[in-house]
C-alpha cells in the first residue's frame, strides 16, 4: 500500500477510492483466509446488554474479542395489559431478555446468575452456540447461584436464546427468551435506526383482559390456545409512548425474534415493504417482502427505508392476534409528506351500486354480557352507544342522514308514523323506495344484528332525540314483532 | 454398618438426644405403592409406613440446633458442607434477627445441615419417593395428581414469589395431616441427587442432560405433571452444599425400628 | 484413651458435637488447621476395602486420589469407566505411581461386599496396592456421591443409572479436577494427576 502511494501521484479522491478498495479487499482476505473458528481474539470487553426495543452499539470494525456477558435471571411480577399482571421469568429483567451483540470470532464468557429470590432453577440455550444443548447443560443454575461457560461464535446471524429447563415450555411461556446477534466481520451495513422486537404467546388462567394477577395456564399452553400474543412481553409495549420512532428518509433495521412457545409469526408492518429481509436471521437476503414468516425459536432481520411520515403498525398478520390478543406495535415517523408516494385521501363520496345488496355477515349473533336498561335514561344512554356504533355512519350524528342516500331520522314523519315498522326495519333491513319528509330515497339498509334489548334501546334513543315523538320502545315490543312474523 | 459404626452412631445419638428443644410433632404416613414421575422401570414403588414432621423445620427450631451444635453456625460450618449462602439471611450466627419470623421455615440450609439436624434427633431426611408420596395428597385424597385443579394450584404456588417468608401452617392440611408440602418452600430429600433418565447408564453422556430440552420428557411417566417436573428440575440443579433461599426441609422417621438408621424404603420385593 | 479421643473427634466431625469441652475444641481446631474447608477428609464415614480392612477417607491423606463410582454387576457403563481408570493408571508417570491411589467406590454396597470387590479387582487385574475398592453404607455412599455431584438411582433390582464422572483430589482431599463422560479424552485428567503428584 505504501509503495502504491509513493510510486503514484494521486488526487485525494483517488486515494479515497483506492483506500476503500483496499479495505474491502483486506476484509475479504481475512474472511476467506481465516475460518471463523480460528479467528484470534484481541483483548477482553464487557458486553453491552440492552432491554427492548433498544440494541447495543454495532460492532463495526472492531476485532474479535473475549466478550464477558453477565446475565441475571429475575422472576418478577409485571403488567401484561391494563389491570392484568403476570409473574414473568426474565433474562435481565425484561421480556424479551437483554439483547446480546457479538461479532464472528468473539469468545463469549457467559455468566448466568440466578437471583436468590427466584424460586426455580434456570439455564440458557443459545442458538448461536455450537455445542450440545447450546449451553443448557453447562449453565443449569439453582437460585442464589451462578454458572459460567464459554463459547466461540462461528456463524453470523440473528439467533434466539431461551431457557431450557424442564418443563421447557413453561419457562419459555413465562418470557425466558431473547436474541443474540452475531455480526459478520466488519459489521452489518450502517443504518439510521435499529430496534429489537420479539413476539411471544402467553397463556393465562383468565381470558384476555381478565384483571388481577393471572397465573400461567398449563392446559391452554398445551392446547396452544393463547390468551395473549404480544410484542416485547406485554400488550402495548410498542404503542403510545413505547412506540419506536424514525424520520422520513431514514433506513430502519428491525431485529425481530419469535420466542413462541407455540405460535409462528407472520410479521408485517402495515404500510411498509421490507426492502431487505435476512431470511430466518441467516445470510440469505430476500428483497421487497410484504410479510415474513418467523418460526417459534427463530428470527429475521428486516430493513426498510422510510419515504413518508405517519404511523406504521407492526402486526402478526395472523390478524386476530393483532386485533384481539395484543400483537400490535407502532413505528411513528416524522418528516415531510411525499404526495407522489402516498397522497392521503383525495376525495370522498358515496358508493351506491344499482341494485346492490349488502350481505349479512354469516356466523353467530350472540353478544356477550349485555347491559340491561333499568330506566328510560338508561335506555337512552345504552341506545346512544348502539347508535354511534351501528347507525351513525349513515344516519349521521344528529340523525340528519345524507342527502340522496340515507334518509334523516331527525323530525322524521316516516319514523313517527309507525313504531312497529321502524322495529321491523331494524330487525329485517329495508330496501326499495320510501318517502321521508317529502323526499324520496331508494337505498338499502341491512338487517342489523342486535339483541332485542339493543334494538329497543337504539330506537328509544332515536324516538327521544331530534324532535321525534318520544316513544319508548321496550324489548317486549321488539320480541313481539319477531314472533309476529 | 459393621465394626464400630453402630457404636459411633449410638454415641452420637446419645450426644444429640440430650436436649430436644427443637423436636416437633409427627404424623404417621401409611405406606403404599405408587408410580412416581421418575421411577424404577416405570414400576410401582413401595413406600413403607413412616412418620413425618407435620411442618417444615422452623427458624426457631434450627436456632436451638445451632446453639446446641456450634459447628453448624454459619461462621463455623465447613464449606464442604455448606456454601456461602448458608443461613445468610440470619443477622448473626446465633440469631435470625428481627426481620425474620421464628415461625417461618428455615431456609438457606445445605443438605448436610438438614441431614445432620434430622439425624441428631434420631430422624432422617425423607427419600424423594417418600416425599412425593406424601405430596400427592390434597385435603381429602391420598393421590390427587389427576385432579387438574390441584395441579393448577400447585403450579400457581411455584410461580408466586417470596413464599418462604410466610409462617408454617399457612397452607392446607393434607390427607395425612401434614402441612405445607406445597406453597411454602422447596424441601431437601435424602436422595435428591438421583434424578436420571431410566437407563441413562447405557446412553453415555445423556445422564447429565436428563432434565434439559428434548430429553426432559424421556423417562418421565406423566408428561402433564408440570409441578413434579419443576420439583425434579429443582433437585437436579442443586448440590449438597448449596444453600438456597427457597429451600428448607423436614424430617421423617422409620416406624419399625427407631434405632436403625435405615433409609432404604424403596426396595421392591 | 486413644479410642475415646477418636470417637469424640468423629462425633465432632459428624457435627453432633455440642457445647464443646476444651479438648473437643482443640481437636476440632487442629483438624481445621491441617485440612482445607473443602477437603473430603472431613467426611466422617467408615469404609471397607476389598481386603476387608476398615478405613476412613482421611487415612488416605498425602496421596493424590483418582476416584470413580461404579457397581460390579453393571454391564454397561461401568466396564468402560473401569477401562478409563486403567487407561489413566497406565499413563501416570512411573516415578509418580506411588503418590497416586486409584479408588473405585461402589454405589451398590448391599451387593458389593469386600469379597465381591476383591474378586472384581482380580478379574480386572486391578489388584495391586494402587487400587482401592470401597464399600460403604447407603447413607455414606449417598453423602460421598453428593460431594462429587455424582447422581445415581437404582432403576431396577439389579441396575443403577449413574453419572460417569472421574474425580481427582489433591493430597489434602480437595477436589481438583473432574472428567465427565465415557471414553473421553483424558489428557487433562492425566496432566492434572501428574502435576499434583509431582508437587507432592
UniProtKB/TrEMBL annotation, chain A:
Class of the enzyme per the UniProt entry, highest EC level: oxidoreductase
Name of the gene this protein is made from: nirK
Gene Ontology molecular functions: nitrite reductase (NO-forming) activity
Protein's UniProt name: Copper-containing nitrite reductase
Cofactor(s) required, per the database record: Cu(+); Cu(2+)
Gene3D superfamilies: Cupredoxins - blue copper proteins (2.60.40.420), Cytochrome c-like domain (1.10.760.10)
Domain Cytochrome c positions: 378-466
Coiled coil: none
Cleavable signal peptide: none
Record flagged with keyword Transmembrane helix: no
One matching Pfam family: Cytochrom_C
Keywords: Copper, Heme, Iron, Metal-binding, Oxidoreductase, Repeat
PROSITE patterns xrefs: CYTC (PS51007), PROKAR_LIPOPROTEIN (PS51257)
Keyword check for Cell membrane: no
Reaction catalysed by this enzyme: nitric oxide + Fe(III)-[cytochrome c] + H2O = Fe(II)-[cytochrome c] + nitrite + 2 H(+)
Taxonomic placement: Bacteria, Pseudomonadati, Bacteroidota, Cytophagia, Cytophagales
Oligomer and partners: Homotrimer.
E.C. number(s) listed in UniProt: 1.7.2.1
Family: Belongs to the multicopper oxidase family.
Organism of this sequence: Splendidivirga corallicola
TrEMBL record, chain C:
Keyword Signal: yes
Superkingdom per UniProt: Bacteria
InterPro entries in the cross-refs: SCO1/SenC, Thioredoxin-like_sf
Keywords in alphabetical order: Signal
Keyword Lipid metabolism assigned: no
CDD domains assigned: SCO
Signal peptide interval: 1-21
Family, per entry: Belongs to the SCO1/2 family.
PANTHER family for the chain: ELECTRON TRANSPORT PROTIN SCO1/SENC FAMILY MEMBER, LINALOOL DEHYDRATASE_ISOMERASE DOMAIN-CONTAINING PROTEIN
This protein's name: SCO family protein
